[in-house]
Write a structure and sequence with these properties.
Length: 480
């Protein structure tokens, strides 16, 4: 059985505890590798290495740092198949999705921040006849990056890349549910010429190694993506230590469909925005609101397409949906289908586990599910399910749909389908969300701010926002 290791000070090593946790393959339900069960001692080892590396990395010229990060992105690209296979096997997602989205976007993230840092300028403010201010943007020091299981390498790199580009040393922890590609990343970093101790990757559970990262006094900033409850705990722990915090949390995103939209384009994109990655993308539109004039037409066409969607083993090139990430997660999603029925909902399609032929008969496969007939205030429509389950609800007016769309504790993203330009801008302005897509979904420009409002998080990632987060501003005034 393959044993993964931590990557500390440029070397792979066993966890201090000597203990390992099982890593399950979602498509088969079998344990296929073991993950280090790291703790505070491993974090201390990584911090010691990072402290030694920080003067080297932060004093390196920007061009040199950029070159190493470009090589890192090329290193992942050169091993594309290996990374794609690992991501798909670890997470249960269709191989085709990992090949088209996850790994190419991780490559882009490293490349983007490797080159963005070359253009990152700081401000200067002249005071006529008095003097001049200039603002230095210095790396923070050692930072912690903690990421979830749904887009493992993609979200890991979205944090690590700007942190490193800005000159910080990083203690990073991928989800214990999907550790494999983060494990491979250490090899690539080494090959790219990253000095030892600059990037340290620790594996293990949130409550032990994750908590130790958050609590370590020498780790000055925490960039976290994951659930809202975990984010709340991290905020409570880190705030009294005055750490910088970036929190990317849960979502319950509305997908609002007006009768005047381009129906065909809306329909095919809505299939993706509902079920891509088995609905396990924080940006998926799980609450679909449809203007009453086209509700029946939409319902018939959508349910027809969803019921024909192929749920298959992740290796199958025809697979549109693979397995959900774990048994507990599958059970959680199914419990929400039961809740929806108790709340008066009707399951139009799906709502059950799919048993495939061996060796996938113990895999965590779920049929994509569409539910109607629920009040917008019920738990099914308010709580994050994070699986292949959507609800559909009719509406009449803009005011009504805005109230329903903005009614949850979350405010991550929203999608809007309309050909009415004025309405599109008006609604975009009124929606409680950090990201609004009009007649599109999941289009990402790496320069734009990414993040949510309300319980969906604090702060923004992406572009200059990320580089600002991972630097400390110091203003210097010089008298004329
Ligand atoms: P999670 O909160 O359970 O875990 C996320 C990470 O935090 C994991 O690495 C975990 O080990 C670690 N962790 C858990 N407890 C910790 C603690 N006490 N201290 C420090 N670290 C701890 O989330 P998950 O189940 O892995 O991911 C799903 C969630 O992530 C969903 O809610 C989803 O919406 C959210 N998400 C948000 C975004 C976004 O950009 N806003 C993107 C992807 C996923």
């Amino acid at each position: 059985m393959k044993k993964l290791q931590n990557f500390i000070n440029g070397n792979y090593c066993d966890p201090c505890s000597g203990e390992y946790i099982d890593n399950f393959e979602p498509a088969t339900g079998e344990v296929y590798s073991l993950i280090p069960n790291s703790n505070a001692d491993d974090v201390q080892g990584a911090v010691t290495a990072a402290e030694q590396a920080f003067p080297i990395w932060s004093n390196m010229s920007i061009e040199e740092r950029s070159e190493i990060l470009v090589k890192l992105s090329q290193g992942i690209e050169a091993r594309m198949d290996e990374f794609v296979d690992a991501e798909s096997r670890d997470n249960g997602k269709p191989r085709s999705l990992a090949a088209h989205v996850d790994i190419p976007r991780a490559v882009s993230n490293f490349h983007f921040f490797a080159t963005a840092i070359l253009h990152y300028a700081s401000e200067s403010h002249n005071m006529v006849g008095v003097g001049v201010n200039y603002t230095l943007r210095k790396p923070i020091g050692i930072v912690g990056c903690i990421s979830p299981w749904n887009l493992p390498l993609y979200l890991f790199s979205w944090k690590i890349a700007p942190a490193l580009a800005a000159g910080n040393c990083v203690i990073a922890k991928p989800s214990e549910v999907t550790p494999y590609t983060a494990y491979l990343l250490g090899e690539v970093a080494k090959e790219a010429g990253m000095p030892p101790g600059v990037l340290n990757i620790l594996h293990g559970e949130g409550g032990s190694v994750g908590d130790a990262i958050v609590k370590h006094p020498k780790i000055k900033a925490i960039s976290f993506t994951g659930g809202t409850n975990t984010g709340e705990y991290i905020a409570r722990t880190a705030a009294p230590m005055f750490k910088k915090l970036s929190l990317e949390l849960g979502g319950k995103n509305p997908n609002i469909i007006f009768a005047d939209c381009d129906f065909d384009e809306m329909l095919s994109t809505t299939l993706r925005s509902s079920f891509a990655n088995q609905g396990q993308i924080c940006l998926c539109g799980s609450r679909i609101f449809v203007q009453r004039e086209i509700y029946d037409r939409f319902k018939a066409a959508f349910v027809d397409r969803v019921s024909k969607t192929v749920v298959s083993n992740p290796q199958d090139p025809k697979a549109k949906l693979g397995a959900v990430v774990s048994k507990p997660h599958m059970e959680k999603v199914l419990s929400y289908v039961e809740l929806a029925k108790e709340e008066g909902g009707t399951v139009l399609t799906g709502g059950e586990r799919v048993i495939l032929d061996a060796p996938y008969d113990k895999g965590y496969f779920l049929r994509p599910t569409v539910i109607e007939g629920l009040d917008f205030k019920c738990r099914t429509n308010q709580e994050e399910i994070f699986g292949p389950v959507v609800t559909i609800t009719p509406f009449d007016t803009e005011e009504e749909v805005l109230e329903m769309a903005n009614s949850t504790q979350y405010g991550l993203s929203a999608t809007l389908w309309t050909s009415n330009l004025k309405r599109a801008h008006r609604m975009a302005n009124e929606l409680d969300a950090g990201i609004v897509w009009i007649n599109a979904w999941l289009v990402r420009d790496l320069r734009t701010p990414f993040g949510g409002t309300k319980s969906s998080g604090v702060g923004r990632e992406g572009g200059w926002e990320a580089l600002r987060f991972f630097t400390e501003a110091k203003n210097v005034f010089v008298k004329y």
